[in-house]
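Page 42, continued from yesterday. The earlier attempt failed because a stray header line got pasted into the input along with the sequence. Redoing it now with the clean sequence only.
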Amino acid sequence: MRDALWRLAFRIAYPLARRWWRLTGRATEGVSVAVCHDARVLVLTPSYRRGLTFPGGYLRRGEPP
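This time it went through. Structure tokens are written below.
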């Protein structure tokens, strides 16, 4: 039950955060990684977006990609 509440919170908060970042002009940088092994590719279903995506995340200020 707790996981379902966190997923719901992220699904609501993430689109709002993206809109806020777009309105304030905040620039973000991120990375994605394609992990391949034995002709298979790792993809994830994030709790805050619909669809499949590669693992990754945002870079902190000063952090190299």
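Notes: DSSP finds one helix and four strands in the chain.
Reminder to self: strip header lines before submitting.
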